[in-house]
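G., before I forget:
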Amino acid sequence: MNNEKQLSEAESLELITSMIQKVKASYHESGTSAILWGVVVALASFLVYASITFDFTLPIEPFWLVFIAIVPQVYFSIKENKINKVKKLEDAAIDTVWLVYGLSILLLVMYANIAPAISEKFAKQEGWQLIKHYTNGSKADEKIPPFIPSIYSLYILLYTFPTMITGIVKKFKPMIIGGIVSYVLFIVSCYTTFQYDMLIGTVVAIICWLIPGLILRAKYLKQRKSSNV
Amino acid sequence: MLYGIPTFLSGAIMRFMPLKVGGIVCWFLAIATLFITPNYFLLLVALAVVIAWIIPGYLMRKHFKNKTV
């Protein structure tokens, strides 16, 4: 009935070690996802900040880069699922956190694009509109569409959440520190203009993703090297 | 949208379907708020609370009581 080979103590230990090594090589633990998100969001935020500061027009919307980053993330996740059949419960939970984060970013993009237009429609129905009025009378009043104040602050708040959870679950200090600093920067961004919100977004992407990602990557490569020796 | 995040995550981690459904319903209600006037926002919040927390809470309580008996 039972065709399974009985493993010796040494073989069992070797099997457990190899399973742990496989699990440790996950997409999040190798730092790939953090580096990818860090580079893409930092670059996109900085390009917007530079275009406002130095008054030039970008040929494409830089935040499309964020969507481009989702493609390799999905690819790596599928590839990793095929290679690693063994998955810790905490890794499955972290995967769900990043999935929910991606979904929330999409919903926030929807909100930022739809809400002003719909608000304008409701305002029209009620018979009023927003007017920009210069209190010193330097310019004539102009009609403006409804807008969401400091919308990028909401993105900064959302950027922090998967990092904070990953850091706490994995007990990885650089991510916890990055998360705390990013929460402080979120509060700062509530007091700054859109232009500087973009600069803060760049700093947040570097602190909460890129730096912890590079530390994770270095650890992962060191671990892989030592396990191959 | 923020109500949906912890609800869905708790459902996924605990493998408890009513919480997962509650989280997803919250996200649909978040999209619905874009298309209605602010007068109805609180009505949707009440609906979200019932679907995401109160109903799963009662189901969990029932599940817990059945287990302990």
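The CA atoms of residues 168 and 176 of chain A lie 6 Å apart. Chain A touches chain B at residues 89, 93, 96-97, 100, 103-104, 107-108, 110-111, 114-115, 118, 122, 161 (CB under 8 Å).

More on Monday.
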